[in-house]
Amino acid sequence: MGQIAKIQAMLQNGEISCVELTKKYLKAIEEANGELNAYVTVTPDEALETAKKVDEKIARGEKLLPLEGVPMTLKDNISTNGIETTCCSKILEGYKPIYDAKVWEILKSQNAVLLGKTNMDEFAMGSSCENSCFGGATNPFNTDHVSGGSSGGVASAVSGDIAAFGLGSDTGGSIRQPASFCGIVGLKPTYGAVSRYGLVAYASSLDQIGPITKTVEDASLVFDSISLYDENDSTSVGKSETTFDKLDNDIKGMKIGIAREYLDGVRDDVKEAVLSAAEKYKEMGAEIVYFDLPALKFALPVYYILACAEASSNLGRYDGIRYGYKTTQSYEGTHDMICKTRSEGFGEEVKRRILLGTYVLSAGYYDAYYKKAQNLRGTIIKAFDDAFKNVDVILAPTVPMTAFKMGEAVSDPVETYLTDICTVPINIAGLPSVSVPCGFNSKGMPIGMQIIGDKFKESTILNVAYKYQQACPENFKDTKWGVKL
Question: Which of 277, 282, 347, 434 is deepest in the core (most CB within 10 A)?
Fold first, then answer.
């Protein structure tokens, strides 16, 4: 049974009231957040108000909605009406949106209990959560290590049991990578399956919102709830089918592909864990198919050109005039004021990516870089389309290594870009992928693998992930933190 079902059973059976449960989580946040640094904003008043509504509904004998009464969190780039949303950047200090993101509107209508907003790399740019004006979130398995990025705060909160589930965003691996580092489940849905309305944009053609949870069942429940068509998002399609009732389907005869290129440059302990998982699938009756996917070698440069180009455009709106931070220095004219505001308001990594994006879009370089990257994106999409003619899903490492120590990403930011090498192809192609824990290294740090599917095949990848979770429950471990149900 997943965490969400457990909570709802306890509420419905009267073992605990929603107010009592919410207070437990708020107390756990108070005790753990000093070390985990997962939350940047805690919302006790909103949480307890919602909890009271849930208790009143239970008292009337009414059945709870799928996520009703469940304490959860949102990454700090998902808009919440009247609640500060900073993207963990100085430039959005004090900004309170005047509307809700579609995903939060859905969860709010179900009386999900919002505990607060969680830490992240500034504007979702990073792989460690350390590019945050609040400092980085730490890993509940070992607080000397990073939680991953950019959705590191959500992963830290869920892994540390100071939220039952959370929503993050994934532009190049920002849900799956921290889920892998923190030993939990992270689902990056198909592009268009979940509305991006109200998500503060990093790279609009790559961004996607998805769940970070303790179990595959929970990821499925949350995805089914939030994957609705939204007319406010021009790229919205919604889900093609419900995933939860297909989790326990037999996978005998299913073809699970392993692209040899996905194993290149991967640390030995990670590779062994993924190949061991492949053997487990063979025992379940699946067929393992090795194949070549040479287009993968283009994915990292293509991603960083396209993502930075879109970031350069999207972040042009932060000018100190309309909202957010404005320089306190003296300035001469509008141009000087904007220049000083952006120089002071943005962190180093954000400035680095804006500069790179502006460069590849500039006259004389557009054809050489941006246009070529878009053409290669088409090549990568076709390569995956061809692969899925022969296999049902693709099995790969989520990250080439386990969580690195705090400070390592800051000292060598370019090296950390390589942590995205396994995840970015999925965003380029707009595919769904779920990261699940598949073992631990010699120091007890979690290892994650990802199961990649064809477009709108979330039910297939979650089915494959669930069967592994059933077969290897020892890889889904609790940490010492937070609320234990």
Answer: 434
Write out the H or E segment, with its range, that includes residue 380: helix 372-387
Which of 57, 75, 188, 457 is flagged as catalytic?
75
Between CA 298 and CA 377 the distance in angstroms is 9
Contact yes or no for 291/416 (Cβ under 8 A): no
Cα separation, 115 vs 104, whole angstroms: 13
> Does residue 220 carry a catalytic annotation?
no
Would you tell me how many other CB atoms lie within 10 Å of the CB of residue 242? 13
Report if pTM > 0.90: yes
User: Which among 127, 174, 195, 225 is annotated as catalytic?
Assistant: 174
Alpha-carbon gap, residue 355 to 107, rounded angstroms: 37
Tokens of 330: 């003296």
pLDDT category at 314 given cuts 50, 70, 90 is very high
- CA–CA dist 389, 161 (Å, integer): 40
Pick the catalytic residue from 79, 132, 150, 195: 150
CA 68, CA 18: separation in Å to the nearest integer? Answer: 10
Give the integer Cα–Cα distance in Å for 261 and 317. Answer: 39
Integer angstrom CA distances of residue 67 from 10, 82, 352:
13, 22, 39
Q: pLDDT tens for residues 196-254?
A: 999 999 999 999 999 999 999 999 999 999 999 999 999 999 988 899 999 999 999 99
> Cα(353)–Cα(343) distance, rounded to whole angstroms?
13
Q: What does the CA dihedral 134, 135, 140, 142 come to, rounded to 10 degrees?
A: -170
User: Can 75 be counted among the known catalytic residues?
Assistant: yes
- DSSP β-bridge partners for residue 211: 167
| Catalytic status, residue 150 | yes
